[in-house]
Amino acid sequence: MSIQVFILSRLMVEKTYPYKLKKQMTEPIPLDELGGITESKLYYHFDALAKKGLIEPVEVIKEEHRPDKQVFEITTKGKEELPKKIYQLFKSANDINDIVIGLANLKYVDPEKVVALLNARLAEYKAHWDRIMNFENTSKRDRKSENLNELLVGYFTTKSDHTIYWLEEAIIQIEQGNL
């Protein structure tokens, strides 16, 4: 979903083709590597968006000794769907990684609605984590099992605290108009 939001948001700015978009993702930081986005994934999502009528090819660039490059632009339907896809990112977010593309494209959505979605998601996340932490396992464990349990509880507690902190920080930054 976030790859499609990324593609649609880039096409809101300019017509482009998958290879060019992939190159743009490497500078100034390697977003493609951080997000695990390969050229084949980009081509797949360009194709999927075209099949849904959200983007369309408008030009073919032919260069000698190079493959043809199909240039795409966003359609009216794509412009209507982009905010819905961004809201869906925020609605289904499990951590900050899931909303990075949405945060970068807040200009296409209502920030107050995003804050409401993130607050709801944060409340669900906290409630879920509280249920997990309040689960009492009364089974007898040996020392190695106990050590493993402590290690995992420590890891997941730290991860949960980190997620909660950054979701709250994102909400604050949106509310203050900083993003």
From TrEMBL:
<dbReference type="Pfam" id="PF03551">
    <property type="entry name" value="PadR"/>
</dbReference>
<dbReference type="InterPro" id="IPR036390">
    <property type="entry name" value="WH_DNA-bd_sf"/>
</dbReference>
<protein>
    <submittedName>
        <fullName>PadR family transcriptional regulator</fullName>
    </submittedName>
</protein>
<dbReference type="InterPro" id="IPR036388">
    <property type="entry name" value="WH-like_DNA-bd_sf"/>
</dbReference>
<feature type="domain" description="Transcription regulator PadR N-terminal">
    <location>
        <begin position="7"/>
        <end position="82"/>
    </location>
</feature>
<dbReference type="InterPro" id="IPR005149">
    <property type="entry name" value="Tscrpt_reg_PadR_N"/>
</dbReference>
